[in-house]
Amino acid sequence: MKQVIITIFATLVLSACQTNETSHQNSIRIPGEFEPHEAIWLGYRTLEGYGNYDKDSITLTIIKAIHPHVKLNLIVEHDSLAPNAKDSLLAKGIDTTNISLVYQSPTDVWYRDPGPVFAVSESNELKVIDFKYTNYANVLPDSISERARAHEKIDREIAQRLKLDTINSIVAIEGGAFETDGQGTVIQVENVTLKRNPHLTKEDIETDYKKCCGIENVIWLPSGIAEDPLNFERITGNYLGYGTGGHTDEFVRFANATTILLAWVDEAEKDLNPVNQLNYEILSENYNILSKSTNVIGEPYTIIKIPHSSPQIEVQVVNEQWSQKAKNYFNLAEGDIVNMVHASSYLNYLLTNKVIILPQYGDGMGKVNKKDAAVRAIFKELYPNKKIIGINPISLNRQGGGMHCRYQTQPKIHK
Predict the structure, then answer these.
(1) Phi and psi at residue 200, to the nearest 5°
(2) How many degrees, rounded to 5, is the angle at CA 290 between CA 127 and CA 284?
(3) Residue closest to 378 by CA, chosen among 269, 304, 311, 303
């Protein structure tokens, strides 16, 4: 009986997909991230304690690199957190003419996931797709946490500020798990999208995407990379990780409307450690699926294999700083040695007008390593007219994310 009720509920909501003003007629397109941007919405600093904005070298590098080329909206929890933010940027030689501070409470420094997903209508109007947000929990809509309920409103609040219509979706998904070619195809990870929506089937999700987002074609991949487990989990053996459960932006991206970038572990590397072994199997399966996939008009994609970053492993000794709950959960005793694997990836890059900020992990001595150079060469060939800036994102990786997780793009409307 419970399943019948859920199915009826899903059917009713799917049939009622609409904007906040008029019914939606499948005339929406979510542009690819590689298309021109009007603005970048960047998580700057929040109450959650992700570091002082004045000392956050990664955020400052991003601001310096992109502000001459695109309007930059810096998201701050409230004005008391950054009272002298613009003065601080000016002191570092950053022209703030193209920079706005946007105070939003509550908000999230990982702005990609709850932030606004912008779409464009056939009449060339900007809209916001209002996906549901569960704060990475695999639960029914009526079971989300208070934090999730608060953050679920972030995208609608931005739509209200910009006086844009919102289009309601019944699908719970984070922005980092939604990868589109801008032409009606989206890549989804079953281990994320289906688990975030235990009340919906694949068919329900695809129907909602078609009606609300103009998505005609969904490519389903089974899982994401091993370094990106859900929350704090055991990857294998004594290798532990912290992440989202398999976001697309860690391993697969559309370089343009016809080209897919896929993280890849070579045969020569697959036996170097257990994490590589898992990723070799995961990515090989994903490659087989993608190589047989087509776009909305039946054309195959060009797939470029991007060397997957070597696992960023931090050896830790279990001590009194570990909670007893964590020790019990992983069956660990004080003095045990574990390997913390951080969610590193070359595909968690930032792309905007004229600029790419590319993860570069170095050799531990401040020098570019062979993989860094190989990835940089691929991107230079893909984007010959963009400036490529390398940055080591390991401080973000340790928190379960990367540069791409920090921002959302607002597409440029062609008048």
Answers:
(1) -120, 150
(2) 130
(3) 304
CA–CA separation, 29 and 18 (whole Å): 15
> What is the identity of the amino acid at 9?
F
pTM of the model: 0.91
pLDDT digits (tens, 9 = 90+) for 184-207: 999 999 999 999 999 999 999 999
To which residue do tokens 């890849």 refer? 264
Over residues 262-304, the pLDDT tens digits come to 999 999 999 999 999 999 999 999 999 999 999 999 999 999 9
Residues near 105 by beta carbon (within 8 Å), at least 6 away in sequence: 77, 78
* Closest C-alpha to 387, from 346, 358, 359, 354: 354
Q: Which of 259, 305, 258, 260 is nearest to 279 (CA)?
A: 305
